[in-house]
Amino acid sequence: MITGYLFYSKFCARVFGVEPSAKMPSERLLDGVDYVPLPGWKLFMIQLLNIAGLGPIFGAIMGALFGPVVFIWIVLGSIFIGGAHDYISGMLSLRHDGRSITEVIGFYLGDKIKTMSMIFILILSILVGVVFVKGPAALLTNMTGIENIFWFYMIFTYYVIATVFPIDKIIGKIYPLFAVALLLMASGLVFHIVWSAVPVPELSASNLHNMHAHNSAVFIFPMLFITVACGAISGFHATQSPMMARCITSETQGRPVFYGAMTAEGAIALVWAAAAMAFFGGVPQLNAEMIAHKMDPAWLVNLICVSWLGKAGGVLAVLGVVACPITTGDTAFRSARLILADYFKFDQRPVKNRLMISIPIFIIAFFVTKINFDIIWRYFAWCNQALSVIVLWTCAIYLAGRGRFHWIMSVPAVFMTAVCSTYILIAPEGFKLPPNYSIAAGILTAAVFLILFLTRVKRPAVSSI
After folding, report:
1. pTM over 0.90
2. b (16+ CB within 10 A) / e for 28-38
3. pLDDT digits (tens, 9 = 90+) for 24-59
């Protein structure tokens, strides 16, 4: 992971073509609300919380059920797919005045795709926000005994404030603290594993296979690549990066902020995957315990932290399973506001303008919390990775249109197209087709996309971007 950041991220930066002397949106469009210059260390911490939340913890634990093969996906995914995806898409937003990813998609794929993407991402953002109201509220009720409705409205009120207030007033002050807690939790687990010589299942020829308890129905391809998203690649990241693109003070910060945060998230996912496999003595035991506890990763997070890190671990576990999802929920709503503001070209400096967009979003979100959308939520993982496919192809078109080495984007785009196409064909919530037909159709779909890309990509009208 470290080597990938030190070398491959530099290669991606050379391919993109960084301009250190270019004036940044935070300087040219300074508004004191969303366009606010922030120091590099704070940008990194905020971006890490923006893209991480519970993703590299819960996703990694669920991925660990497959066995040590998950290590391959987390490492290679973070370096060659997720890191490149986050960096190029974040830099494209930066080059387009920090505009939302829907605006960037529209510039390179057309207005129809832009509108479809906007609707798609808004639904995704509201779902994320809603789940991260209900989830933390339920956890806080279990921990404190205070009624769920109290925590529900407390979190919802915070979301409204964090969405409307200037980014440096709320998010810029508390996010770095929570990011430190997230990193401390992972570092504490590493220290315990090394200090206590905890045996971690290692990747070898003998265990390079599917160890999932339901392996007759859950396949490594494509299921693993959908299960572990935030620790390898996530389309949701591209919706969050524009917030930092509006606060960056030099293009050279893009590499540590966008690629660096993805590397840190991948490292956190590696730690949690290893801890989950080691805690009960192996992958079969992990599967058995998770089945007994209704596949609840929050239970395992709390158990591991308290058992290995003591009281301090308990505090970190609370921060991990409560604060982290909250910090994902508020930026999900904030990104929804920015997407709508960019789409309708609505000035966000006046508070009343921010409220005019935010209030309808929260009204919709409030009613969604009253709906039992467990079945709908099953589609979230697929939708998240499908968004990454759109972003990857957008970035590939940008690079190809400028005669640059587009393969750093087009190869991941082909792979993720195959993953998402296969998943929706084979999954229980999809078309439930036989595995062989689904995999063949998924690969064929990816091949068609690649042929269309290679034969029809054109240079955009604006070549200076």
Report:
1. yes
2. eeeeebbbbbb
3. 999 999 999 999 999 999 999 999 988 987 789 889
